[in-house]
Amino acid sequence: MTDLLIRGRVLTFVKEPEGIDDTGAYRYYEDGAVLVTNGKIAGVGSYSDVVKQAGSGIRIADHRPNLVLPGLIDTHLHFPQTQAIASYGAQLLEWLNTYIFVEEQKFKEPQHAAFIAGRFMDELLSNGTTTAVAYCSVHPESVDAFFTAAEERNMLMIGGKVMMDRNAPEGLRDTPGKGYDETKRLIGKWHGRGRAHYAISPRFAITSTPEQMEMSRALVDEHPDCYVQTHLSENKEEVAFATSLYPEAKDYTDIYARYGLLGRKTLLGHCIYMRDREISVLAETGAVGVFCPTSNLFLGSGLFDRDRFDRLGARHAVATDVGAGTSFSMLETMDEAYKVLHLQGQRLSPLRSFYMLTLGNARALDLEHRIGSLHAGADADIVILDSHAKPAMELRMRVASSLAEELFVLQTMGDDRCVAEVYVAGRPMKRGKRADEMTPAARTAEPA
Ligand SMILES: [Zn+2]
């Protein structure tokens, strides 16, 4: 029998919160439950209602008093950089050349790629992230390792081989033809297999010649159901270099626009040094700007201007950008997002943070029917969050008086220790790997 009833304080968003107390933006069941059947959600609501729906003999995973949310989503990171986090001292272009382009050469080796891919997936799960959009290295072996590790865990993952044919060491360069052929073969092999989605991935304008950009356009035209991921306007030196390589383009955004790479399935990492014109082009095309706060601070890149994206009507998402990002935790990412926005006089309410981590990022991927919210028919990717996981949090929570306050404690003080469990298509993948049956957490007092 594959049915499971997950009991706890169930929280799921139905729309983007408009203020700190927009209770219409979410559904919350203090004693709630999610019914899982064959990896899908079959029912969500109060425990008393859902347990009736489940019928007798149902297995119950009792997570009270923890929160039950949709699995978290990370929309931009680099799996070959898992071991290159915390590389000291340099800004973007120097950091790439000094550390990253050395590290990524190791992924030609299938055994190394497989080892890191497994650890990468487990690290995501340990942090409550059930779906991520990742760059692999230039080597097809790294893509095979990535999707194999995801498939072993039944995770909905999006990824692709980076294409780069200049301004990188020889061991990391393909050619326009080779990049096209390898990408084409990998799409055929992986896209749509199980829960895998492919992302066509020209790394950025600096490392692709116009000929490779032309080949990227062909791939996008031939595979409109694949995602596209690249980087845009992360660092001033990078913007100057990129635009110097494409003098005919109006600006950095126009480089990608000229090659037909902007659309609803396009994810553009960073988008910091953008003119209004450029953000308006994203709004027109539906392309998504991806805010990577820990990375932007770590590399000294700059501050993402969310309010300008909102004002100009452009879509945006949030991500770790590991390994320039300093943590796999989406909670820690939102802690830094809050500060980055604060520095610009912008507010990030805890409700909006948790919306972004779940339904907001799912909408940015046009996958909200499957992930990012708890509703009948969705995939049963679920995270259990413990807002008392650290002594300092437990102490802080004694004086918390609302759900929003609890969420703010989680995002400000939380990390992987707050992820009590994570379910992928209904299967426990963190502590519960050992058993599906959970015992009630030993707590002396429920959160106020
Ligand atoms: Zn990146």
Automatic annotation (TrEMBL):
Free-text remark on how the cofactor is bound: Binds 1 zinc ion per subunit.
InterPro entries, A to Z: Amidohydro-rel, Guanine_deaminase, Metal-dep_hydrolase_composite, Metal_Hydrolase, Metallo-dep_hydrolases
Pfam families linked to this entry: Amidohydro_1 (PF01979)
Source domain of life: Bacteria
Keyword set includes Cell division: no
The Amidohydrolase-related domain, residue ranges: 67-427
Reactions catalysed: guanine + H2O + H(+) = xanthine + NH4(+)
Record key words, sorted: Hydrolase, Metal-binding, Zinc
GO MF entries: guanine deaminase activity; zinc ion binding
A GO CC term assigned to this protein in UniProt: cytosol
One Gene Ontology term from the biological process aspect of the record: guanine catabolic process
EC category name: hydrolase
Pathway annotation: Purine metabolism; guanine degradation; xanthine from guanine: step 1/1
Named cofactor requirement(s): Zn(2+)
SUPFAM superfamilies registered for this protein in UniProt: Composite domain of metallo-dependent hydrolases (SSF51338), Metallo-dependent hydrolases (SSF51556)
PANTHER family attached to this UniProt entry: GUANINE DEAMINASE
Function: Catalyzes the hydrolytic deamination of guanine, producing xanthine and ammonia.
Family the UniProt entry places it in: Belongs to the metallo-dependent hydrolases superfamily. ATZ/TRZ family.
Protein known as: Guanine deaminase
Gene name in the database record: guaD
